[in-house]
Amino acid sequence: MPALEHSSDAERDSPGEGRLRHAPAEHPALPRAKVGVVLVNLGTPDATDYWSMRRYLGEFLSDRRVVDYSRWLWQPLLQLVILTRRPFISGKAYRSIWNQERDESPLLTITREQTEKLSERLETAYGDQVEVDFCMRYGNPSTDSVLRRLQARGCERILFFPLYPQYGSPTTATANDQAFRTLMRLKWQPAIRTVPAYYRHPAYLEALTASVREAYAAAESTPEVLVASYHGVPKRYLDEGDPYYCHCRQTTRLLQERLGVDDAAIETTFQSKFGPEEWVGPATVERVAELARQGRRHIAVISPAFSADCVETLEEVQQEIRDAFLAAGGETFTYVPCLNARDDHVAALEAIVRQELAGWL
Ligand SMILES: C=CC1=C(C)c2cc3[nH]c(cc4nc(cc5[nH]c(cc1n2)c(C)c5CCC(=O)O)C(CCC(=O)O)=C4C)c(C)c3C=C
Ligand SMILES: [Fe+2]
Ligand SMILES: [Fe+2]
């Protein structure tokens, strides 16, 4: 009988009320229920050739959380125009930053490293009660495959952790949507919790602040301005209730407070504009050139919306945006790397996970 074979945690583990008194002797031994923790990032192409790029960008840009135009208008434009050209342009950008050793994108390499380090820490705290894994919203490893694998390993509860410090509908919301799409297809769903935005978590802010201090200490010339460059979104998303822009502004303010610098020494900008619509601004590429024209010779750029270095930081910030600053008369451009697998970052992720697991372990 399915009801007996699929015995619940309470029935297996606790004596007394929850136990099935009439369970047959041959009742199969089930593994002890565990808690799964899944780190989630945006995704990445499997390779940089035209078709791999087209498949990846097609999945990404067909997501209505990312581009929310009517399907009837957007799909012909996407399939017939954008996806004939963009895979070449983006493929070139990805090739310039590709991890040749592992033949994968840096975002994938770094996310795996974050997962391994977090897993070690959680194993120390909880032993084998917790399984840690990672997945991507687009491309591989897919959200569906990872959630199913964790469930097969006995995770009846899953903490789903989108690695975006600031909530954004094109990032956090679509990652969560994808997890729930898997749950919609399961007869026996695991219980699931999603981790909220963590841009104001003290441990995240401490790691961010330490990363700036370290980069400044190592810089050739002390930066006069720190440009906090976030991935942009269409301005309309903000008008329609997405708090992303406000979370970004607050992140800069909280970072400024911790660094103890005045308003002239730190700014918020937005990068990676896509399409003709108005996006939130100012645009990083324009602002850094303006700073150079205004006589700032030494600047630093940090990208607090990215938990791992990726094409948007390694190519766009460190190549395009740096070139724009230098071409306009700037002299030294200090890039503050993403928090990646730094110990203080993984410690912050652990602190957030422990907080969100309350009552589960
Ligand atoms: C088309 C609109 C886009 C919106 C809106 C958007 C929001 C958004 N994205 C991130 C984080 C990342 N984006 C990355 C790549 C990337 N983003 C877009 C488009 C939008 N993003 C494209 C087309 C691409 C692919 C690269 C390119 O062709 O330019 C990545 C990097 C992935 C990697 O593998 O390296 C990240 C991370 C945030 C935080 C955000 C706003 C909430
Ligand atoms: Fe993006
Ligand atoms: Fe970009």
UniProtKB/TrEMBL annotation:
CDD domains in alphabetical order: Ferrochelatase_C (cd00419), Ferrochelatase_N (cd03411)
Pfam families: Ferrochelatase
Basic and acidic residues bias locations: 1-25
EC number: 4.98.1.1
GO MF assignments: lyase activity
InterPro entries from the UniProt entry: Ferrochelatase, Ferrochelatase_AS, Ferrochelatase_C, Ferrochelatase_N
Alphabetical list of SUPFAM superfamilies matching this protein: Chelatase
Disordered: annotated segments: 1-26
Source organism superkingdom: Bacteria
Location(s) in or outside the cell: Cytoplasm
Pathway noted in the entry: Porphyrin-containing compound metabolism; protoheme biosynthesis; protoheme from protoporphyrin-IX: step 1/1
Predominant place of localization: cytoplasm
Keywords, sorted A to Z: Cytoplasm, Heme biosynthesis, Iron, Lyase, Metal-binding, Porphyrin biosynthesis
Entry annotated with the keyword Cytoplasm: yes
Catalytic activity of the protein: heme b + 2 H(+) = protoporphyrin IX + Fe(2+); Fe-coproporphyrin III + 2 H(+) = coproporphyrin III + Fe(2+)
Sites where the protein binds Fe(2+): 231, 312
Annotated PANTHER family: FERROCHELATASE, FERROCHELATASE, MITOCHONDRIAL
Family: Belongs to the ferrochelatase family.
Known role: Catalyzes the ferrous insertion into protoporphyrin IX.
Family annotation (NCBIfam families): hemH
Protein name: Ferrochelatase
